[in-house]
Amino acid sequence: xxxxxxxxxxxxxxxxxxxxxxxxxxxxxxxxxxxxxxxxxxxxxxxxxxxxxxxxxxxxxxxxxxxxxxxxxxxxxxx
Length: 79
Description:
The protein is α+β, with helices and mostly antiparallel strands. The chain has one domain (3-77): Fe-S cluster assembly (FSCA) (GMP Synthetase, Chain A, domain 3, 2-Layer Sandwich), CATH 3.30.300.130. The chain is 47% helix and 27% strand. Strand 1 (27-35) and strand 2 (38-45) form a beta hairpin. The longest helix has 21 residues, at 3-23. It is globular, with a radius of gyration of 12 Å. The termini are far apart.
């Protein structure tokens, strides 16, 4: 497994840990891609229309990933 594959595996593992919290509020979280330090995810379900989407994304998901994986510089939601 090369470095990129290891990083992606870590990202996916953390996302899997976070999913139950979002699901419990009716939301959904899907890993899309990791490129140039940016993790692309898709927030769906109740998260799609939630006024706290940016807070969840930046202060929750992004902070968790950046704290655990030094190569992650940002997390972006794609719709």
